[in-house]
């Protein structure tokens, strides 16, 4: 620890109390750990502010002593970096430890105001305590994940409120100089519409603080959905890998016409069964990727196909929803390939129940079973965009299968499909305890990024291992962001290197 860091921590202990600072080796190891190929990144310390004013104190002290900060809410995204800073030695500002209040829930106007530490599980419990009149959109990630942090990382769910940034409104932000700014209508002192009117007056500032290091968001409004009396999911199983193109051609029109209010999930076989199964080493001797025959055997064990399409309808009664189910059944069954799985049948499957939960706004940890597919605890996300065109979808599937096979990994993939674009959620699972496999996983990730970029398909999020490389591929944007960064953070104290922004 440098003398400047020691002075920084001493000043915060004096101003915020000794419990607000932790530099114990075991704490640094815990906050520096991640699941990525690039290895752990230990911070120089962790601070725990308890209010916006205390965040201001931390930021001002960092400017005084030249210390680099790494703010996080709950740090629960296992495939992007966990709590680990993008660079070793940065000071983790753990906002979630003490700033974890649901400040307000307005049931009439259907919104909540949250601090960074508020989790999906916490919000679900509070909405339940109030009678579940309102429903939040949730990810399929850990229930301990933070609502605010997921929003700032462009995270999403699956219900009609899937766009978490789009459903946020009114940020309170500590700038890198220690000043506070409130966005949207919150910029007016005493505003009564801070959490209602998203765009406010003048240029829209909220986007500056998404996937960036231009400010620390300490409070945020999140819009909630009136909970429908009836939620009914539907599932269609398709038998073959190459059916993906037909699936996309079927999904696109019903999303363009808003027939189905949710996103549609198109889930690959190993993404589905991997929540319950582990790689059958005894049958394969560790060879990767898994053979087509063994994949089929696992599918048949669980009564699923190569792809599973899922979505949901909402309504006042069962009778109101049933015609919608019949309409979507007729649409998919005309392919001659799909097998329909009803809501009632799906409720009996732990694999399919995951999707019912996400469409119903209920946090689930069952999808985390995917992290056990192979031993060694390694996991990384690759998240490119795929247009809703069947030909392109099959080209992307072939591209991903080829690159993963060349590097010795399985295709674990789910598409979250809107009307025009899908997000291809690739989960790269590897043994992080074996040096050769860890390095191979890193090469595989970069090969995927390279191949998709060369074809004109960028990613939406990136693990901390490759954030700078992904940003460097963009034209014009890095230079603009650098100029904004220098204006708002003249001493460069806030998370330098995050998303490649210096």
TrEMBL record:
Query: What residue range is the signal peptide?
Result: none
Keyword list (alphabetical) reads: FAD, Flavoprotein
Q: InterPro entries recorded for this chain?
A: Cytok_DH_C_sf (IPR016170), FAD-bd_PCMH (IPR016166), FAD-bd_PCMH-like_sf (IPR036318), FAD-bd_PCMH_sub1 (IPR016167), FAD-bd_PCMH_sub2 (IPR016169), FAD-linked_Oxase-like_C (IPR016164), Oxid_FAD_bind_N (IPR006094), Vanillyl_alc_oxidase_C-sub2 (IPR016171)
FAD-binding PCMH-type domain residues are 39-227
Pfam families in UniProt:
FAD_binding_4
Which PANTHER family does the annotation name?
ARYL-ALCOHOL OXIDASE VANILLYL-ALCOHOL OXIDASE (AFU_ORTHOLOGUE AFUA_3G09500)-RELATED, D-LACTATE DEHYDROGENASE
Protein name, per record: FAD-binding oxidoreductase
Please tell me the species this chain comes from: Hyalangium rubrum
